[in-house]
């Protein structure tokens, strides 16, 4: 069997994700007949059937499911290699840190201050994203290190937990439940959250706060986030049976950067000092 080409994997992943040759061809910017021929040639090359085709649908075989999983990872790795090479080739590459705004357990200023004292430190650029953007950014070579909450998809990543803290519920100050000192999840059953407003996009903090103040949603931020955002129209209440959140520092498993290692050292040192101080 000859080696697979990136082009073949890209074609197959498009078809496997769309489960429709026409949509896959449109996504790839090509005509459908050559795409169909390319998939047949791939099956011939591998000696296995990847897709079950009928006049009404396309479905993956077990072999196709394996190739989709590994093909996605391979395409991500190729793209990441290119991005990391480009980044390393810039005159001053810097360290790219990604996180969701305020989801650092209040540790980031101290981490950066300690990191800057390390001989391996290089300038840090901070890239803010949505709740689920950090792990893909690391895998795809768009970031070097990240702070974000567990659990997450840790494929090809290493990570260290930094701080575990309780979550609270954010309610409109006019909400009847705001009069209570503590709540449980059953009290909030059926209440919409940020993800129920528009499943196609993530709301930013300003939008979340506005909707909470209006009584349209409730929200469960970490305690450190609630302390940063005191607002007259919002109250925060503890929820007895709400799971805590653990903020982690994560980086690509194959990373060999002294700057990444220095940042991880700083992050874990600051976190351990915070625990010792709290104790």
From TrEMBL:
Keywords: DNA-binding, Transcription, Transcription regulation. Pfam families: HTH_1 (PF00126), LysR_substrate (PF03466). It comes from the Bacteria. Residues 4-61 form the HTH lysR-type domain. Gene3D superfamilies: Periplasmic binding protein-like II (3.40.190.10), Winged helix-like DNA-binding domain superfamily/Winged helix DNA-binding domain (1.10.10.10). InterPro entries: LysR_HTH_N (IPR000847), LysR_subst-bd (IPR005119), WH-like_DNA-bd_sf (IPR036388), WH_DNA-bd_sf (IPR036390). GO terms for molecular function: DNA binding; DNA-binding transcription factor activity. GO terms for cellular component: protein-DNA complex. The keyword Transcription applies. Belongs to the LysR transcriptional regulatory family. This is DNA-binding transcriptional LysR family regulator.
